[in-house]
Amino acid sequence: MAYICDNCGKGTVSGRTSSHHRGVAGKRWKKRAEVTLRKFKPNLQKIAVMVNGKKSQMKLCTDCISKFKNVGKLAPKRSTSISASI
Predict the structure, then answer these.
(1) I want to staple 58 with a disulfide (CB 3.0 to 4.6 A). Which of 6, 7, 8, 78 is the partner?
(2) What is the DSSP code (8-state) at residue 14?
(3) 62 alpha-carbon distance from chain centroid
(4) Exposure of 5 by Cβ count < 10 A (0-12 exposed, 13-18 middle, 19+ buried)?
(5) Along the 86 residues of the chain, how does pLDDT read in single tens digits?
(6) What is the rounded CA–CA span in Å between residue 83 and residue 43?
(7) Using an 8 Å Cβ cutoff, are 55 and 75 in contact?
(8) Cβ(6)–Cβ(25) under 8 Å?
(9) Which helix (H) or strand (E) holds 55?
């Protein structure tokens, strides 16, 4: 399974980490901070969505979840009310 949003296609992006950038202008350091590769992952969640009147589960990023909430495409949650009779 790929780590990609089913709606917008947002996925992992690679980048670099750097702890500081001091010492570039003026006096230069003999030892610089290491720059290492890292991954930036989107915040994906499994959400039940109404598609063509049917309930289906999709992996969506939080941006798409907020857009779906405004449009009203999110599936209603099940009510977990317990009725006790004596």
Answers:
(1) 6
(2) E
(3) 6
(4) buried
(5) 589 999 999 999 999 887 665 555 556 666 666 788 999 999 999 999 888 888 889 999 999 999 988 888 787 766 554 545 44
(6) 37
(7) yes
(8) no
(9) strand 54-61
